[in-house]
Design goal:
single chain, mainly alpha, 2 domains
């Protein structure tokens, strides 16, 4: 993929190469991509079962079937998030 970089990005890459941080612009770009991969590797994705629940909730809302957003409801939702973050797959 050949894509032109902005003048600011080109200037920055030239400065890091000139400063000796990288031997070439390509090496600097490879390092940037590697850093981006590392930074985004741990981004959790929503499990399919949870997406199914979201889709059902949207369909219910569109059909006029709304759930009151009570403090108890929010606490149940928080617990689902905590369980998911802890690796528990149980849903409520």
């Amino acid at each position: 993929m050949d894509k032109e970089l902005s003048p600011q990005t080109e200037q920055y890459l030239a400065s890091v190469v000139a400063g000796g941080l990288f031997p070439s612009k390509e090496a600097a770009l490879e390092a940037a991509v590697a850093a981006l991969r590392e930074k985004t590797a741990d981004i959790p994705f929503v499990p399919d079962v949870h997406m199914e629940q979201v889709e059902k909730a949207i369909e219910s809302a569109n059909a006029g079937q709304l759930t009151p957003m009570t403090p108890e409801y929010w606490e149940r939702l928080r617990q689902v998030v905590r369980d998911t973050a802890a690796g528990n797959s149980a849903t409520s």
